[in-house]
Amino acid sequence: MSRVRLRLPATSANLGPGFDTLALALRMHLEIEAEAAGAFSIEASGRNAEACATTKDNLLLATYRTVLEAQRRAIVPLHIRMENEIPLGMGCGSSAAARLAAVALASHFGGLAWSRERILAEACRLEGHPDNAAACWLGGFVASAMDGDAVAAVRFMLPPEWRALLVMPQRPLATTASRAVLPESYGRRDVMANLQRVGLLTAAMATARADLLANAMRDWVHQPYRAEVCPLLGKLLPLAGSHGISGVALSGAGPAVLLLAESADLLAEATRAVHEATQEAGPVELLAFELESESAEFEEVG
Fold first, then answer.
1. Residue 126's domain spans which residues?
2. What pairing do the DSSP bridges indicate for beta strands 257-261 and 297-300?
């Protein structure tokens, strides 16, 4: 069996109002090279390398086994080399990237020969929602929906000069803990406000209207509740529309917060504003980078 290379970007989902629906790809990646071996092993480098290298309770390996077992295929042990840039437990799509990698590897080494569309659909089914996986697999800004196991996703590119600023606390947060604070139901007014912003945000992204993002990225469905477990959010939301910051939203389920700027020239002012707003919150890590416009890479290499 040939070796396989994968390159999958980080993602930021929800973007405020687009709960489990909207996401964009970020230019930091999980890169993997895998080949058949006598036993499972992982060589990992980069961010969270120790956690990525373990073969016990490893999401990628567990998903790989699950897919092959479901398809009644032999489980081919793999030797995996990975370079990871995606922060774990920060709301940057690390689980979606791992599941997509696992499904793609299962398709290849299990002889399933699945199309890119089938790989995405399976990863979305395993994730339970399509937003992160669709943006990770397709790149750019993606609106997506699921109908049973079928996934409908539309992508388009954002202006290349736009930049993202990711603000991360020291401690990660499990998605299950972030979802646990959400209510079981919502009032009509809040739902209508979110629906309006989803439409406005999608249109603003499609037409490069950065001036609309501060309003379009407002949310009434998940951020007000997640603020109690994601304390950076309340400190950074007021920066939207000022200090060179076009829009602010929780990144996925948090606890990281995503800020968008119209250009790299505005990042210095935005960074100063972030430091001032978070100085009493304890140490934070700031990452500035471009948005990812390319789709995930999946190729045989020999």
1. 4-157
2. unpaired
Can you tell me the distance from the alpha carbon of 268 to that of 282, in angstroms, rounded to the nearest whole number?
20
CA–centroid distance for 184 within its chain? 24
Q: Are residues 120 and 205 in the same domain?
A: no
Q: In terms of pTM, does the model score above 0.85?
A: yes
Indicate if 184 and 132 belong to the same structural domain: no
Please identify, among 102, 129, 157, the residue that sits at the C-terminal boundary of a domain: 157
What phi and psi values does residue 277 have, to the nearest 5 degrees? -75, -25
Q: What angle do CA 28, 32, 33 make, to 5 degrees?
A: 150
- The span from the CA of 281 to the CA of 205, in Å, is 31
CB atoms within 10 A of CB 276: 12
User: Hey, what are 109's tokens?
Assistant: 């080494």
Q: pLDDT, tens digit, for every residue of 243-264?
A: 999 999 999 999 999 999 999 9
CA dihedral 298, 25, 159, 286 (to 10 degrees): -130
Task: Report how many domains make up the chain.
Answer: 2
Q: Looking at the structure, tell me whether residues 12 and 90 fall in a common domain.
A: yes
214 occurs within a structural domain: yes
Contact residues for 251 (Cβ-Cβ < 8 A; gap 6+): 12, 13, 14, 90, 91, 92, 166, 257, 258
Q: Report the CATH number that the domain containing residue 15 is assigned in CATH.
A: 3.30.230.10
- Which residues, other chains included, contact 275 with Cβ-Cβ below 8 Å and sequence gap of 6+? none
Residue 1 scores a pLDDT above 90: no
**Which strands form 163-169's sheet, in the order they lie side by side?**
247-250, 257-261, 163-169, 284-290
Tell me: the pLDDT tens digits for 11-56? Answer: 999 999 999 999 999 999 999 999 999 999 999 999 999 999 999 9
CATH (domain of 286): 3.30.70.890
Residue 151's nearest CA partner among 120, 112, 128 is: 120
With respect to residue 245, please indicate whether it lies within any of the assigned structural domains: yes
Question: Do 153 and 168 lie in a common domain?
Answer: no
